[in-house]
Amino acid sequence: MTHTLHRSGDAESLKSDYVVLVLPAQGFNNEGSAPKMRKILEIILNHNPVNFGDMRTGNYFRKGMKPILDNTQDNSIVHGVFTNRKDLEECIAELKEADLGISTVVTGLFDDVWDSVKKVGLTPHSINLSLGVWGKKELLPEQEVLDITTQCGHHCIAPNLVKKLANDVKKEKICIEEAARVIAKQCVCGVANPLRTEKILEKYINK
Amino acid sequence: MKINPQKCVGCALCIPYCVEAAITMGSDRKATINRDKCIECTVCYNSSICPVDAFELEELEWPRSVREVFATVYKSHSQTNVPGRGTEEMKTNDVTGRFKEGEIGFSVDMGRPGVGVDLIDAEKLLMALGKLGIEFEPENPITHLMKDIKTGELKDDVKQERVHSCIPEFKTNIERLPEILDTLKKISQEINTVFSLGLCLKLTPEGKIPEFVKNYLDKNKIPYYPGGKTNIGLGKPLAEI
Question: What is the Cα–Cα distance from B99 to A142, expressed in whole angstroms?
């Protein structure tokens, strides 16, 4: 399961895209972890996430805050999306302080993430490195569309939805913020970044 | 997934939501789903976009049920208790110690991003890897569809199915990276889809990518994304690796 890997985009765009993902290890420390997963979500919420969710319940835009907090389970996988390093660093510092013993993964530019991790006194342990897309790339949509759809690793964001919403924004049927929210709603886990999506949509519309 | 033609009002609002572009308008001005293309992801249903609730979940029978398992986020695999298409891979490596120094994990996310994969194409890749003698991750859902986990051949009754994506996972000694990448490159030219390739690595005690991997990728001009996932070592008890 690699749902926050393979987020395409240039380094400039990815500088506003950091995902914190936390999960217990099944068969190791999952038993009785549900309350800890709730605590972790509460910590995430202290640091201005632009999206959050639990793979067991859904994302903020679809479910709202309370059902996500109230339904953590021993196999929850919780996420928070941040748009700057300050919020990211403060979040992982609080997670470190809470010392809940649950594996934590940060997705984002390696140089930035490793720098932030070291700043809070941690050492990066393991990585998942993307070697990108191989095979019949002619089957893929345009790069801007891909930079939005790959924010959801389960690919619940349809390329045709991105194109339709871009067109609706262009025709002033909806605002760009609403388009980004509709897109974020599709990503069940809550790892889509609506603020980054707005910027990509703007670039796509003005192409 | 079905659309109830008695309920459908032909508004076409659902069409762009389908990740496989499998919904079209029929000549009767009712939305209809192409069952060959549909990968049972339930995105259309879960979007709640239909104003008259015309989408209806089906009780899927084997082997079509395979599509749902590989596409529906909320479903957990019975063997792993992990939701999604793969395993925890490096996300819990600080606790499980699954990837040790000197080892490299591969996740070949077939059909991603958003293209989908016929399992007959997935089998081509699996069998090419099987010939190299690699051991597939036993807890990965695609491994459970194999007739023979040494060759990678799939069970006959699932070969004609199509899934959103599946993620063959395995690990080897780090020195086998060139051989594995050569094989994947060759197969990538023979399949009618794409795959997104991920490598799992324990970082060095200094927190760096093992030199062998970095040097090989750089020397052979194999591009990698500037961003990815980092396990920051907060899990306990910490595995000794």
Answer: 35
Cα–Cα nearest to B201, from B87, B107, B109, B99: B99
**pLDDT at B35 > cutoff 50:** yes
- The answer to whether B112 contacts chain A (CB < 8 Å) is yes
H/E run at residue A53: strand A51-54
Residues 6+ apart with CB under 8 A from A159: A141, A145, A146, A149, B19, B114
- Output the pLDDT for position B80: 46
Give the right CATH number for B86-219 from 3.40.50.2300, 3.30.70.260, 3.30.565.10, 2.30.130.10.
3.30.70.260
The answer to whether the Cβ–Cβ distance between B92 and A92 falls below 8 Å is no
Of A126, A137, A164, the CB nearest to B231: A126
Share of chain A above pLDDT 70, in %: 99
Report whether B162 contacts B142 (CB < 8 A): no
Contact B123, B154 (CB under 8 A): yes
Q: Do A160 and A77 fall into the same domain?
A: no
Please report residues of A whose CB lies closer than 8 A to that of B232.
92, 104-106, 117, 122, 124-125
Query: Is the confidence metric ipTM above 0.90 for this complex?
Result: yes
